[in-house]
Design goal:
Order of helices and strands: EEEHEEEHEEEEEEEHHEEHEEHEEE
Number of strands: 20
Strand content: 25-35%
Distance between the termini: 34 Å
Shape: globular
Structural class: alpha+beta
Number of helices: 6
CATH topology of the largest domain: Fumarylacetoacetate hydrolase, domain 2
CATH class of the largest domain: Alpha Beta
Radius of gyration: 18 Å
CATH superfamily of the largest domain: Fumarylacetoacetase-like, C-terminal domain
Helix content: 10-25%
CATH architecture of the largest domain: Alpha-Beta Complex
Number of domains: 2
Oligomer: single chain
């Protein structure tokens, strides 16, 4: 099942994207079941109710062609994993980490999958990062080795963990300065429920800039797979429904080229993950932006 939110920013409506027998798709209006796609929507009982109503054929439809918003409203926290692909570690010239590298990204960085991304004032090293996003559906704390961490996952989506490398790496302190600029987490276009995705370590993913392929990899290259990340993170912080884990990016980021190939205002970035859809962002000059 694919859960979406469509409509103008701040006025999105909950929807499910379903396949039609003729090969097309249609948007089913979920507003008679839930007010929005939130943490509460991710409860197993609510997801089961939505699936039942979708299958009934009784739901109304919404028009196609609307703006697609981030598929989850009121995200709790975004936990990010750095250096989690073997080939990415190699291109960065860094050793494989012994434990996951964690940092946080503010939920107010999230925008829709096709919304504009603002290059921040003073930026010279804005970068792109296609990432598998894990959406938590059940509270996870201190998971034991014999727990099945994937049982705590409601679904998966695409994140573009946009980063400003100078702010991140050259300005001292933690990475937060290069990760939390406004619009720096395009998210969506939809959440695909975990039962439909199956094995999260068997997905191809990639990105392109102005039509040129930059990243082309598979989640099988992750150093720490999704199940281990959920278990590990739960030892340090409680994961609640509506939290998101950005699981790291593969090789091919702008910083990985010699010389580096960062993005600038006017560039168009596409990111895609098998079975999870595609995003497209126009990067624009964020100087002076106030809305």
């Amino acid at each position: 099942m694919k859960l979406m939110r469509v409509g103008a920013a701040g006025a999105e409506r909950p929807a499910a994207l379903v396949d039609r027998p003729d090969g097309g798709t249609e948007l089913l209006d979920l507003s008679s079941i839930v007010d929005d796609i939130t943490a509460e929507t991710l409860a197993p009982a609510v997801l089961a109710l939505i699936a039942e109503r979708v299958a009934s054929g009784e739901l109304g439809t919404l028009p196609n062609g609307q703006r697609i918003g981030a598929p989850l409203a009121r995200i709790g926290k975004i936990v990010c994993v750095g250096l989690n692909y073997r080939e990415h570690a190699a291109e960065a010239g860094l050793p494989i980490p012994d434990e996951p590298i964690l940092f946080m990204k503010a939920s107010d960085t999230v925008v829709g999958p096709d919304d504009e991304v603002r290059v921040p004032r003073g930026s010279v090293k804005t970068d792109y990062e296609v990432e598998l996003a894990v959406v938590i559906g059940r509270t996870a704390r201190y998971l034991d080795p014999d727990d099945n961490p994937l049982n705590y996952v409601a679904g998966y989506a695409i994140s573009n963990d946009v980063s400003e490398r100078e702010f991140q790496m050259e300005r001292g302190g933690q990475w937060d300065k290069g990760k939390n600029c406004e619009t720096f987490n395009p998210f969506g276009p939809w959440i695909v429920t975990a039962d439909e995705v199956g094995d999260p370590q068997a997905l191809t993913l990639g990105s392109s800039v102005n039509g040129e392929v930059r990243q082309n990899s598979t989640t099988a290259d992750m150093i720490f797979p999704v199940a281990e990340l959920v278990r590990y993170i739960s030892q340090f912080m409680t994961l609640y429904p509506g939290d998101v884990i950005n699981t790291g990016t593969p090789q091919g980021v702008g910083a990985g080229f010699d010389p580096p190939r960062f993005v600038h205002a006017g560039d168009v970035v596409d990111v895609t993950i098998e079975r999870l859809g595609t995003q497209r962002q126009q990067f624009v000059d964020g100087v002076g932006a106030h809305s």
